[in-house]
């Protein structure tokens, strides 16, 4: 097992009635890295995401998030044996995500996500989208609405800080000039970037991106790569992403996990995965021993 | 702009118009034949006799044909010509004009409502003033307040609530029963009634948390009916159909509005008239409505209000951002219900008598119609819609000349629902998202731009 992992998925199984979407999947995401989860259509990638972010409750398995040092992993079994969902202490906090419901995963464990089909608040402005993402912080600052209703300056200060933070992110994704336009009015690529910035405004330690490059043109795709690398290098956020676009996966990910039919078929650096015959077979849709014949046929 | 070429000149197609008119005539004939063509009347021997009315039927059908021709031969070409003769800068000028109106509308309206009793007194004198202040001013303001309360639930949070009148009833009965049993004053019971209504709002909120759209609407509808049926059947507590009468009227900070020596008129050395109480009640409901407006405007700019609107836009995205959607929905229900409760307790204090009759589904429907007509989420729109719908109903009572046209038996208020329906249909054609469908953003970086209606979600739950 990777010692400095931020996320550990162990023996994750998700069944929908008779359908096994994910079977006994284990992998880890290293802190400060970009981990990619790839696989052909229907491999179960989004299901894994939904389990991690609390939208699904996994049938079996453990999903643990470590917000501390590697030594904190030693406490994982004790936490699992207990009935609580997190352990908070001076050495950092440890969370069992499969025990938490969706909003708590973001609020407490600080895992943020984006969606395959963009889910912005289309009728709200770009700025408002980023303010909603800072809801929990602002809610406390507004004294759970009471101070805000009374118009106390403590809330006004918190709000201008939140707007500043939003503006900083807008500057970064190049949308500062469109801050006061409705999010639904942005072009597709900008909406993708805004959704990532919105997720980042929740202050996550782990950012889960569900096909962030889907539908982007090559130039937008390059910009996205730069954005993700800057998130990795300049913030304390680790990235976990699902992607079909191999140019994104192969250019920026530090670690690749490959799924096929709900089972992990490969796990390693991008070079390892690129040359793994099992992966090539899965992507070509053939048996492993037929790969060479098919590959020469299609001119690989 | 170049002159429109002959090819793009709008042509009036007479043959098409005639065909349309013929079809319209045929449809109206088919529809009106049983409705207008026949009538059963009782003759001298108490027998039902079928009477045919061919002339009336023919005149209606001809009217339809004429209307259809008017639309396709005059109205449509006129609109096309106007669209073709597009003046450059016209849309900019119109937007400018609209911004100007929007800027002055609120201060002007505020000034008008504050001075309204004075204007009425100057206009009608003491004699007719009670009617105008009570039937128009107070009545409209109650519905403005109810509309603004429901607007939080339906317009902001996007939760379709068909049982809003339940909270109005809770507020009214809370005031009526507590004031009668314990003799507490209006100003103590007002917040208490609001709190009780908010409590019932949360109570309704819990079971419907998982429901969305049509299912939510049905359950809230049932909730409204449950409350009404309890009011009818729990006779010991609520008085059943007979309702609660003799509810203490609000006093002027302890001074009652009556003809006694310690009454309001005597204390201030005025001649007694019921007008003072009406004017006082007017300012009370005005204050309550303005409080609702103030709180709602503030809430919209706070995280809780933004969360309501985000919930309307996309609930799943809300949860992915760490918003507790359960609390968000419950606060929306509670806030909406609280304002409904305020309005209800005011209603009980103003009427002095309440019964379940006042809290039927029809009331919920009217309040919802006000919110939808006004434009969900828009406070100004809701206020305009309330003035139009409730004021319109009251105005119809005053239209005596209609009796001269339709005969002495004509009772205009009976056609209220017909006109509501007509107004709804027209609004849905002309402005499908309500009178004011644009959205004011709650925060801005450089300039406040309104959000066009096409982007704003209407809420699916």
Task: Report on this structure.
The complex is a heterodimer of chains A (300) and B (461). Chain A has helices at residues 45-52, 76-81, 102-107, 126-132, 135-141, 146-150, 153-173, 188-200, 218-234, 246-252, 270-274, 277-284, 291-298, and strands at 5-16, 19-30, 34-38, 60-68, 86-89, 92-96, 111-113, 206-210, 238-242, 255-260, 263-268. Chain A is of the alpha/beta class and 300 residues long. A 6-stranded mixed β-sheet of chain A has the order 7-8-9-3-10-11, sandwiched between helices. Chain A starts with a strand and ends with a helix. Chain B is mainly alpha-helical and 461 residues long. Chain B folds into 2 domains: 12-83; 101-398, ABC transporter involved in vitamin B12 uptake, BtuC, CATH 1.10.3470. Chain B has helices at 14-37, 54-84, 90-156, 165-182, 186-208, 213-233, 235-238, 264-267, 275-300, 303-313, 315-320, 325-351, 361-374, 379-398, 401-406, 416-430, and strands at residues 38-42, 48-52, 244-245, 353-354. In chain B, helix 1 packs antiparallel against helix 2 and helix 3 (90-156) packs antiparallel against helix 13 (361-374). Chain B is globular, with a radius of gyration of 26 Å.
What brief labels describe this structure?
heterodimer; A: 300 residues; alpha/beta; Rossmann fold; 2 domains; 6-stranded mixed β-sheet; 5-stranded antiparallel β-sheet; 39% helix; globular; B: 461 residues; mainly alpha; ABC transporter involved in vitamin B12 uptake, BtuC; two-stranded antiparallel sheet; 16 helices; 4 strands; 69% helix; disordered N terminus
């Amino acid at each position: 097992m990777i010692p400095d992992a931020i996320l550990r998925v162990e023996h994750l199984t998700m069944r929908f009635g008779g359908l096994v979407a994910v079977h006994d999947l284990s992998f880890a995401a290293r802190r400060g890295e970009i981990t990619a989860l790839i696989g052909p259509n229907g491999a179960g990638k989004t299901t894994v995401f939904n389990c991690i972010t609390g939208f699904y409750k996994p049938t079996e398995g453990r999903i643990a998030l470590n917000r501390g040092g590697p030594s904190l992993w030693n406490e994982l079994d004790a936490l699992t044996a207990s009935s609580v969902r997190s352990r908070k202490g001076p050495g950092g906090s440890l969370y069992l995500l499969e025990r938490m419901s969706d909003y708590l995963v973001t609020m407490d464990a600080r895992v943020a996500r984006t969606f395959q089909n963009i889910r912005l608040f289309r009728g709200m402005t770009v700025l408002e989208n980023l303010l909603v993402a800072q809801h929990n912080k602002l809610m406390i600052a507004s004294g759970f609405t009471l101070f805000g209703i009374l118009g106390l300056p403590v809330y006004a200060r918190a709000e201008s800080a939140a707007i500043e933070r939003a503006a900083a992110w807008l500057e970064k994704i190049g949308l500062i000039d469109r801050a006061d336009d409705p999010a639904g009015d942005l072009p597709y690529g900008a909406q993708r970037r805004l959704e990532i910035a919105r997720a980042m405004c929740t202050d996550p330690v782990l950012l889960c991106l569900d096909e962030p490059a889907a539908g982007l043109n090559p130039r937008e795709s390059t910009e996205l790569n730069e954005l993700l690398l800057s998130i990795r290098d300049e913030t304390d956020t680790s990235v976990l992403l699902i992607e079909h676009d191999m140019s994104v996966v192969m250019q920026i990910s530090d670690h690749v996990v490959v799924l096929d039919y709900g089972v992990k078929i490969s796990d390693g650096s991008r070079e390892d995965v690129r040359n793994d015959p099992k992966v090539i077979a899965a992507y070509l849709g053939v048996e492993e021993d037929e790969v060479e014949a098919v590959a020469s046929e299609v001119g690989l | 702009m170049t002159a429109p070429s002959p090819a793009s000149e709008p042509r009036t197609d007479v043959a098409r118009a005639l065909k349309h008119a013929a079809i319209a005539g045929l449809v109206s004939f088919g529809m009106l034949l049983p409705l207008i063509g026949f009538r059963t009347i009782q003759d001298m021997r108490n027998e039902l006799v079928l009477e045919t009315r061919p002339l009336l039927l023919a005149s209606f059908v001809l009217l339809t044909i004429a209307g259809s021709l008017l639309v396709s031969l005059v109205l449509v070409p006129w609109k096309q010509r106007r669209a073709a003769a597009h003046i450059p800068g016209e849309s900019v000028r119109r937007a400018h004009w609209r911004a100007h109106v929007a800027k002055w509308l609120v201060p002007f309206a505020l000034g008008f409502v504050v001075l309204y009793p004075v204007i009425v007194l100057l206009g009608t004198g003491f004699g007719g003033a009670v009617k105008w202040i009570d039937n128009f001013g107070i009545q409209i303001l109650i519905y403005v307040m109810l509309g603004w309360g429901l607007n939080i639930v339906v317009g902001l949070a996007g939760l379709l609530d068909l049982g809003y009148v339940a909270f109005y009833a809770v507020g009214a009965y809370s005031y009526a029963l507590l004031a009668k049993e314990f003799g507490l004053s209006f100003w103590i019971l007002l917040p208490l009634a609001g709190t009780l209504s908010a409590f019932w709002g949360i109570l309704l909120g819990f079971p419907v948390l998982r429901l969305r759209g049509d299912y939510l609407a049905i359950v809230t509808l049932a909730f409204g009916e449950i409350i009404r049926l309890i009011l009818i059947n729990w006779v010991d507590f609520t008085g059943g159909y007979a309702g609660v009468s003799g509810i203490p009227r609000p006093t002027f900070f302890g001074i009652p509005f009556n003809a006694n020596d310690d009454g309001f008129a005597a204390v201030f050395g005025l001649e007694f008239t019921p007008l003072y109480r009406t004017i006082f009640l007017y300012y009370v409901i005005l204050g309550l409505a303005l409080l609702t407006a103030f709180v709602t405007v503030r809430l919209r700019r706070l995280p809780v209000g933004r969360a309501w609107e985000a919930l309307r836009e996309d609930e799943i995205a809300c949860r992915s951002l760490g918003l507790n959607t359960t609390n968000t929905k419950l606060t929306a229900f509670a806030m909406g219900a609280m304002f409904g409760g305020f309005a209800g307790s005011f209603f009980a204090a103003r009427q002095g008598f309440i019964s379940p009759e006042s809290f039927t589904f029809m009331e919920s429907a009217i309040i919802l119609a006000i919110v939808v007509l006004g434009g969900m989420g828009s406070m100004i729109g809701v206020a305009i819609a309330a003035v139009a719908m409730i004021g319109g109903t009251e105005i119809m009572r005053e239209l005596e000349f209609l009796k001269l046209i339709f005969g002495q038996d004509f009772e205009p208020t009976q056609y209220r629902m017909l006109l509501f329906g007509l107004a709804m249909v027209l609004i849905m054609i002309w402005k499908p998202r309500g009178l004011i469908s644009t959205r004011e953003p709650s925060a801005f970086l450089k300039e406040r731009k309104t959000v066009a209606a096409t982007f704003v979600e209407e809420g699916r739950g």
